[in-house]
C-alpha cells in the first residue's frame, strides 16, 4: 500500500524554499569548485661545483742555438719543438736545448677548454741588445679536452725575429708571457 503525502500551502512554500536553497548551495559549490580548481607541482634545485681549471708551467720556451749573418731572419719554434728558419738565420750543428713551452692544464675530467695566447710582441734582451718574438701557436691549437684524470699537456711555440748581425749573447724575455685557459 502506497502512502501519499499531500502538502498544504505553507508546507509547499517551505519545501519550495528548501529546494531552492539546496539547489543554490549545490550550484554555489559547483561554481566555487571551478573557481578554486588548481594544480600543483614541486621541483628541486641542484648545483654541481666543479673543480676550477688551472694551468701550471712545466718548461720554459727555448729556441736553442741560432746564428745569423748580415741579413735579418726568423726562427719559428713549433709547439712540438721543431724549428724552421728563414732569411739570414741558420741552425748550427750544436743545437743547444730546444723546447716549446710546456704547461699542465688541470680540471674536471673530459671538460673542454679554450686557450688564449699572447697577441702582442714579447721582447728578449741580452744587455742592451733586443729581439722580438710573436705569432704564438699551441698544441692543442685553440682549445683542448682534459683526459679521464682531468689533465692535459699544452705546448706553446712562437716566431723569433732576428736582426741582421744580431749581437751574440744569451737573450731572455724581459717579461714572461701568459697563457690563459677557460672552460667552455
Protein model, in words:
It contains one helix and eleven strands. The mean pLDDT is 89. 17% of the residues are buried. The chain has 184 residues and is mainly β. It has a single domain, classed as Immunoglobulin-like (Sandwich), CATH 2.60.40. The protein has one helix at 9-35, and strands at 54-59, 67-77, 83-90, 101-106, 112-116, 122-126, 129-139, 143-145, 151-162, 172-173, 180-183.
Please write out the topology:
Blueprint: H1 9-35, E1 54-59, E2 67-77, E3 83-90, E4 101-106, E5 112-116, E6 122-126, E7 129-139, E8 143-145, E9 151-162, E10 172-173, E11 180-183
Antiparallel strand pairs: 1-4, 2-3, 2-9, 4-9, 5-8, 5-11, 6-7, 6-10, 7-9
Fraction of residues in β-strands = 35-45%
Unreliable runs, pLDDT <50, ≥5 residues? none
How many strands appear in the DSSP assignment? 11
- CATH fold-level topology: Immunoglobulin-like
What's the CATH first level? Mainly Beta
Helix content: 10-25%
Biggest β-sheet, characterized? 8 strands, antiparallel
Shape: rod-shaped
Number of domains: 1
| Sequence of secondary-structure elements | HEEEEEEEEEEE
Structural class, please? Answer: mainly beta
CATH structural architecture:
Sandwich
Oligomer: single chain
Terminal residue distance: 91 Å
Rg, please?
Answer: 41 Å
Number of helices: 1
Overall mean pLDDT score?
89
Amino acid at each position: 500500500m502506497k502512502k501519499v503525502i499531500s502538502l498544504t500551502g505553507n508546507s509547499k512554500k517551505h519545501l519550495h524554499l528548501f529546494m531552492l536553497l539546496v539547489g543554490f548551495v549545490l550550484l554555489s559549490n559547483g561554481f566555487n569548485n571551478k573557481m578554486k580548481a588548481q594544480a600543483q607541482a614541486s621541483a628541486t634545485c641542484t648545483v654541481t661545483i666543479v673543480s676550477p681549471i688551472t694551468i701550471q708551467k712545466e718548461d720554459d720556451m727555448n729556441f736553442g742555438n741560432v746564428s745569423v749573418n748580415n741579413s735579418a731572419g726568423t726562427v719559428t719554434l713549433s709547439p712540438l719543438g721543431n724549428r724552421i728558419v728563414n732569411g739570414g738565420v741558420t741552425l748550427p750543428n750544436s743545437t743547444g736545448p730546444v723546447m716549446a713551452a710546456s704547461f699542465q692544464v688541470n680540471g674536471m675530467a673530459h671538460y673542454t677548454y679554450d686557450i688564449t695566447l699572447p697577441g702582442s710582441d714579447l721582447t728578449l734582451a741580452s744587455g742592451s741588445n733586443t729581439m722580438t718574438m710573436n705569432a704564438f701557436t699551441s698544441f692543442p691549437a685553440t682549445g683542448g679536452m682534459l683526459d679521464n684524470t682531468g689533465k692535459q699537456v699544452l705546448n706553446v711555440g712562437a716566431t723569433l725575429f732576428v736582426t741582421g748581425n744580431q749581437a751574440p749573447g744569451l737573450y731572455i724575455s724581459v717579461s714572461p708571457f701568459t697563457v690563459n685557459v677557460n672552460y667552455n
